[in-house]
């Protein structure tokens, strides 16, 4: 089972969602993600509250979101629901799970930039395209992610998600980070941790967590900010 995590259209061309990645590109219709993880954009105007899935209100520019939900996640949820409504993404897409994964990968330090980008792009949701007028917000989000986050995640699970064999790769902090895990002779799950193709360490991890680039055991070698 191969999973491609794409930030579909919201991070416009920055892969970050699980399963079935949809197209990107400035001139082609794009999707906010794929069937597993997506990224959306936030409410279009608004100075702080969170907008509903139907409209333009609020998670603007890093403003607060619903209680307990970071502004980046809420902004992503707003545009994800719009993309589903207008057919940019599959109607059964899990917006909540996709957005939480997206924001976790891009990093907490980029939450404001992600919220601002999604908020700017929300009015263009019906066209499934990234508005040209949001280039500054888009560039700011990408610059932040390049400095402290991850993008372009792709994972392979030979025995489906329930197994303990997996391989994931993503660009983090400007370098390619890879995790390759599988069962060892003593029954544990061992992982090889690589940066730009060079093994920087090995570790033993818990099943279902080993391939997580930030929370898995390899991050003791990667040092990717959480």
Order of helices and strands: EEEHHHHEEEEEH
Low-confidence sequence ranges: 1-63
**Widest sheet, order of strands:** 1-4-5-6-7-8
Shape: globular
Number of domains: 2
Signal peptide: 1-23
Protein name: Secreted protein
Organism: Sorangium cellulosum (Polyangium cellulosum)
Keywords: Signal
Question: What are its keywords?
Answer:
226 residues, alpha+beta, disordered N terminus, 8 strands, 2 domains, single chain
Structure description:
With 226 residues, this protein is an alpha+beta fold. The chain folds into two domains: 2-151, no CATH class; 157-222, no CATH class. The chain contains five helices and eight strands; from the N terminus they run βββααααβββββα. The chain has helices at residues 71-85, 95-106, 111-121, 135-148, 219-222, and strands at residues 2-5, 33-34, 37-38, 150-156, 166-172, 175-183, 189-195, 198-204. The strands form two sheets. A six-stranded antiparallel sheet has the order 1-4-5-6-7-8. A hairpin with a 2-residue loop joins strand 2 and strand 3 (37-38). The protein is globular. Mean pLDDT is 72; it is low at 1-63.
Task: Please give the structural blueprint.
Blueprint: E1 2-5, E2 33-34, E3 37-38, H1 71-85, H2 95-106, H3 111-121, H4 135-148, E4 150-156, E5 166-172, E6 175-183, E7 189-195, E8 198-204, H5 219-222
Helix pairs in contact: 1-2, 1-3, 3-4
Signal peptide: 1-23
Biased composition (Gly residues): 39-64
Keywords: Signal
Short description:
By secondary structure, the chain is of the alpha+beta class. It is 25% helix and 20% strand. Helix 1 packs across helix 2 (95-106), helix 1 (71-85) packs parallel to helix 3 (111-121) and helix 3 runs antiparallel to helix 4 (135-148).
């Amino acid at each position: 089972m191969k999973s491609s995590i794409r930030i579909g259209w919201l991070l416009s061309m920055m892969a970050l969602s699980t399963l079935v990645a949809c197209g990107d590109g400035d001139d082609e219709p794009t999707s906010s993600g794929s069937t597993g993880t997506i990224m959306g954009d936030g409410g279009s105007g608004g100075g702080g509250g969170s907008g509903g899935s139907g409209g333009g209100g609020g998670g603007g520019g890093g403003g607060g979101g619903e209680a307990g939900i970071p502004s980046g996640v809420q902004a992503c949820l707003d545009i994800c629901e719009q993309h589903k409504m207008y057919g940019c993404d599959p109607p059964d897409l899990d917006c909540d799970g996709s957005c939480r994964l997206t924001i976790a990968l891009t990093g907490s330090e980029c939450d404001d930039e992600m919220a601002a980008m999604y908020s700017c792009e929300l009015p263009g949701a019906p066209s499934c395209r990234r508005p040209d007028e949001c280039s500054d917000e888009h560039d700011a989000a990408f610059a932040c992610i390049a400095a402290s986050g991850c993008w372009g995640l792709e994972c392979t699970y030979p025995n489906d998600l329930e197994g303990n064999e997996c391989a994931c790769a993503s660009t983090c902090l400007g370098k390619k980070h890879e995790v390759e895990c599988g069962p060892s002779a003593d029954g544990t799950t061992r992982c090889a941790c690589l940066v730009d193709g060079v093994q920087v360490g090995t570790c033993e991890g818990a099943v279902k967590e080993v391939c997580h680039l930030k929370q898995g055991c390899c991050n003791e070698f990667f040092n990717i900010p959480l």
